[in-house]
Specification:
Elements: E1 8-9, E2 12-20, H1 25-36, E3 40-47, H2 53-66, E4 69-74, H3 76-92, H4 99-119, E5 121-125, E6 130-135, E7 140-145, H5 162-165, E8 168-169, H6 178-187, H7 210-216, E9 224-227, E10 233-237, E11 260-265, E12 270-274, E13 280-291, E14 303-307, E15 315-322, E16 325-335, E17 342-347, E18 350-357
Parallel strand pairs: 2-3, 2-5, 3-4, 5-8, 9-12
Antiparallel strand pairs: 1-2, 6-7, 9-10, 11-12, 13-16, 13-18, 14-15, 14-17, 15-16, 17-18
């Protein structure tokens, strides 16, 4: 973790840190570690739905128990436009979005930086399980994978720029397990030490799935045809919003053998079904690529490690840059590289960039 520095940068105090405080055990433990390092911590709760009084109350109570200042902000309007709107439109077009990847640069860390500026704090922090690497030779910062590989969240943060990274602290980056986090909270008798982890999509009711959520907002897609890879019609699907690449269950069709969604064609409103083997490919094309430092052309032809989903392990690959599109050729085939998801590039344990899979 960044050591305490008794100086200022651009009028911002390096003794002060603004921490994203959700009320969960991770951000609570992060606050404790920051306080132990001598930082003056302020908790920041941003309400993405604008009506989460329970969440606001829990975060406020945690801040009180920790003895830190607390700030609340309603970001629901901007979140609705940039995250929920993107989430729905992507699914309706047959793509599978990751809302956290969109939220992090456009809402979460943007608001952290803006609010930190307003209170004169140089540093910002969250309870993510990852680390920051500061390359003094380049004058650049990178997100770095967490010590705990199973909890590593670096994949979600690849779109953060240097303006954020140079001010960012991840107190939990060196923790070896979630038990270590809970034990820290228990040692301080904190009320949320045993609180369950939040659901995967923060704005979707845990009792509903994403399809029900999208339809409840008034969106839907029309039925169309299931086809095989040769174009033969196999049956009728319920609308492309109901499916994603790699899906096997809930297809609503019996072919006498396991079938997987291998392609979704929005223009023709068709869904291609095939075997599990059809989901593997060595080549992935991505667009809207970003890099933490330098330009895309600096990485052309470079051997890197890459992962095509949050839960995947980084795999050896070579990237070829063509404008803002990148072709990644993996040494070993990757399963179900899904349009709308992200491919993230690593050198050693450092996140150097990534983009959206086409």
């Amino acid at each position: 973790m960044e050591q305490l520095k008794n100086n200022k940068s651009g009028g911002l105090d390096k003794k002060k840190v603004l921490l994203g405080l959700s009320g969960g055990v991770d951000s609570t433990a992060a606050a404790l570690l920051l306080k132990e390092k001598g930082f003056e911590v302020t908790g920041f709760y941003f309400d993405v739905l604008g009506r989460n009084e329970n969440g606001r109350k829990e975060a406020s109570q945690v801040a009180s128990q920790l003895g830190i200042e607390f700030i609340y902000a309603d970001v629901s309007e901007e979140f609705g436009e940039k995250v929920i709107g993107n989430f729905c439109s992507e699914y309706l077009c047959g793509r599978t979005p990751n809302p956290c990847v969109v939220c992090n640069p456009n809402i979460k860390f943007k608001k952290l930086v803006e609010t930190a500026d307003s209170i004169g704090a140089f540093y910002i922090a969250t309870g993510h399980y990852c680390r920051i690497y500061r390359d003094d030779n380049k004058g650049a910062c990178y997100v770095m994978r967490a010590a705990n590989e199973k909890k590593d969240q670096s994949y979600m943060l690849y779109r953060l720029g240097q303006d954020v990274l140079r001010r960012l602290i991840f107190p939990l980056g060196e923790f070896s397990s979630k038990d270590e986090t809970r034990e820290l909270a228990r040692s301080k008798n904190l009320q949320n030490a045993e609180k369950k982890d939040s659901q995967e999509i923060c704005f979707v009711d845990p009792d509903k799935n994403y399809v029900e959520y999208i339809k409840a907002l008034g969106f839907d897609s029309r039925p169309g045809k299931f086809i095989d890879r040769d174009g033969k019609v196999l049956g009728e699907h319920k609308g492309i919003v109901n499916y994603t690449i790699g899906q096997r269950k809930g297809l609503g069709i019996a072919l006498g053998k396991p079938a997987f969604v291998t392609a979704i064609d929005y223009g023709n409103n068709t869904i291609t079904l095939g075997d599990n083997e059809d989901l593997f490919s060595n080549v992935v094309i991505s667009c809207d690529n970003v890099f933490a430092y330098g330009q895309a052309k600096d990485y052309d032809g470079m051997r890197i490690m890459a992962k095509v989903r949050y839960s995947a392990r980084p795999a050896e690959a070579v990237i070829k840059v063509d404008g803002n599109k990148i072709t990644t050729t993996f040494k070993e085939p990757q399963r179900a590289a899904t349009p709308g998801q992200s491919i993230v590039f690593y050198i050693d344990d450092h996140v150097v960039g990534g983009g959206f899979i086409e």
